[in-house]
Amino acid sequence: MVNTRSINVGVLGATGTVGQRFILLLADHPYFKLHALGASARSAGRSYATATSWKQTQPIPDTIKELTVQPCSPEHFKDVEIVFSGLDADVAGDIEKAFRDANIAVFSNAKNYRRDPTVPLIVPLVNTSHLAVLPYQQSLLNPRPSRGFIVTNANCVATGCAVPLAALERAFGPLDAVMITTLQAISGAGYPGVPSMDIFDNVIPYIGGGEEDKLEWELSKILGTLADENGTAISEDQQAAAKGFALAPLRVSAACNRVPVLEGHTACISVRFQRRPPPVIEEVWAAFRDYTCEAQTLGCPTAPKKPLVVHEEQDRPQPRLDRDVQRGAGVRVGRVRPCPVMDVKFVVMANNVSIGAAASSIINAEVAVEKGVIIPP
């Protein structure tokens, strides 16, 4: 049953690229009511329309234009139950912690807490069961808040890769090794992105910020399991004992490239299964087509109707043709075929500023509401 309670929410980093996408997705949300916007000191005190350099193809929602931008501190968000953080990593850590300590649920797009052993790293189309660790996270805080916590979503390209890998694990058991070559859009670098003379007519075989390391490590946490106090994996029916995560024993090798595409990260993936003999290609196609997720079955309003869309055409998916379908909240997969080195290979494409960023955080919050994790004040 979909929530019917109105919930006041805020956006931190509201003037940035991810913050702008949060605003578009929240402006007509059925139960999240955009109540407060936070940004840097140079924007605080101004109307949103004058504080932001709007870069979206849709106009600023009329209901948001005259909202006054606030400093990113909890005292300016007193009537808010949830904040969505689009803050840059260099400032996100202390600010998000302050909001958590002020009894506000934080759903973050920043990397700061992704490696924290008590913070869920969630791709909402894959591992929403990891929300079960939140009571333990709260129990470690002093004083213990009744409602505050931090949930992070994954790196934008890791999000797209995690969905088909989860589909394969669900159908065929643990994976042994994965090789990934990414073709990542310039919007992933944030505004103003990459200088035109660097990216035009070019492919840059390096993305800063430890992108390859993040992709390799985050997939192990996302595809891992809940764990008890000893770090031993537990099953989903033992969620009450969750006190951390057991990483998936998955070997990942990633090569990340920046390409002259505006939005939509593409990845070419080869997979080796632990299972011998490996599944045949027809079984892999079926695993992708049949994949479902909890956000979908709960009826979360931002979740895509189909989390993994399969293309049979040889030349799909493509960013320009496929990135905005389902408001960019689903993942596309195609070119599924045998791999002569591994077992199977395929191409994945996901909208990096929608499901790879803002939409992930919003769906994570919707799942938390539907599962009763968000406690009314």
What does this structure look like?
- This protein folds into 2 domains: 162 residues, 3-Layer(aba) Sandwich (Rossmann fold), CATH 3.40.50; 196 residues, Dihydrodipicolinate Reductase, domain 2, CATH 3.30.360.10.
- The chain is 28% helix and 22% strand.
- The protein has 12 helices and 15 strands.
- Helix 1 crosses helix 12 and helix 6 packs parallel to helix 8.
- It starts with 6 loop residues before the first strand and ends in a 7-residue tail after the last helix.
- The mean pLDDT is 95.
Topology:
Blueprint: E1 7-12, H1 17-26, E2 32-39, H2 48-51, H3 62-65, E3 69-71, E4 82-85, H4 89-101, E5 105-108, E6 121-122, H5 134-139, E7 149-153, H6 156-172, E8 175-184, H7 196-199, H8 211-222, E9 225-227, E10 244-246, E11 251-258, E12 265-273, H9 281-289, H10 294-297, E13 308-310, H11 319-322, E14 331-338, E15 344-350, H12 354-370
Parallel strand pairs: 1-2, 1-4, 2-3, 4-5, 5-7, 6-7, 8-11, 13-14
Antiparallel strand pairs: 8-12, 9-10, 12-15, 14-15
Helix pairs in contact: 1-12, 6-8
> What is Rg?
20 Å
CATH class division of the largest domain: Alpha Beta
Proportion of residues in β-strands? 15-25%
**Largest sheet report:** 7 strands, parallel
- Low-confidence runs of at least 5 consecutive residues: none
* Extended strand count: 15
Q: Whole-Å distance between the termini?
A: 21 Å
Summarize the helix and strand pattern as letters. EHEHHEEHEEHEHEHHEEEEHHEHEEH
